[in-house]
Amino acid sequence: MSFNIAVDGPAGAGKSTIAKKVAKNLGIIYVDTGAMYRAMSVFMIRQEMNPEDKEAIAKKCREADIEIVYENGEQIVKLNGENVNPFLRTEEVGKMASVISAIPEVREKLVELQKALAAKSDCIMDGRDIGTCVLPKAQVKVYLTASSMVRAKRRYDELVAKGQDCDLMQIKVDIEDRDYRDMHREHSPLKQAEDAVLVDSSDMTIEEVVEAIMNLAKERA
User: Fold this and answer.
1) Domains identified in the chain and CATH numbers
2) What pLDDT, on a 0 to 100 scale, did the predictor assign at position 217?
């Protein structure tokens, strides 16, 4: 039986950064579910789909084939055979991903792939509903969060480092809006699984969070 770690939490909590480091330290696969939704988002934007037309998106998602592969130690997200890593982290893609992730048909298509991968491989997976829906039997479940201001500041620093002009308070508002959408969507809303360990990273370093999750994994391995 494979060993699975589920990491859930709101946008900007550092889930992917932490999960990648834990995966590397434990020698297991990291499955970036957010990147899979973002790849679907790239597909929808390229198809010029209207975010409001959920029925059309539900039908269109069948045309997208999304897979995660490792090449030279790097995780590559492929959309219909194309490496779309360079397009995944834009604000436009993030907003579309938040919309389409609430559509049941989109989620069903991606969850199928995620479950199959977790069944055959030791892995750590992060997202919004991993511990509650995708991997309900994961041996380790973590709900990773941080205050909206801390998350906004992290995002602000990232964008400034890339030379982009941005507004800290607007980023905070966008994060809080996204939290609300994610927590109140009809299908698979963001929430802490009953058996998940809460980790608030507001006053923790990345290394401290990684250590906390690794200790949980070692206890339950």
Assistant:
1) 1-28+122-221 (3.40.50.300), 33-121 (3.40.50.300)
2) 96
| CB-side neighbour CA atoms (13 Å) of 8 | 27
Q: Which SS3 state, helix, strand or coil, does residue 192 take?
A: coil
Query: What residues pair up with 200 in beta bridges, in sequence order?
Result: 145
Instruction: Please tell me the distance from the alpha carbon of residue 66 to that of residue 213, in angstroms, as a whole number.
Output: 28
Average pLDDT, the chain: 93
Q: What is the pLDDT of residues 5-31, one digit of tens each?
A: 999 999 899 998 999 999 999 988 898
The tokens for 118 are 């977790």
CA distance 201 to 150: 9
Percentage of the residues of the chain whose pLDDT score is greater than 70: 100
Which residue type sits at 193? A
Residue with tokens 């339950």: 220
User: pLDDT tens digit string along 87-111?
Assistant: 999 989 999 998 998 899 998 989 9
| C-alpha to C-alpha distances, 107 to 11, 61, 90, 98, 99, nearest whole angstrom | 17, 10, 21, 11, 11
What is the 3 state secondary structure string of 87-150? HCCCHHHHHHHHHHCCCHHHHHHHHHHHHHHHHHCCEEEEECCHHHHHCCCCCEEEEEECCHHH
pLDDT score for 15: 93
In Å, how far are 14, 15, 92, 189 from 47, measured between CA atoms? 30, 29, 14, 26
Q: What are phi and psi of 121, to 5 degrees?
A: -135, 145
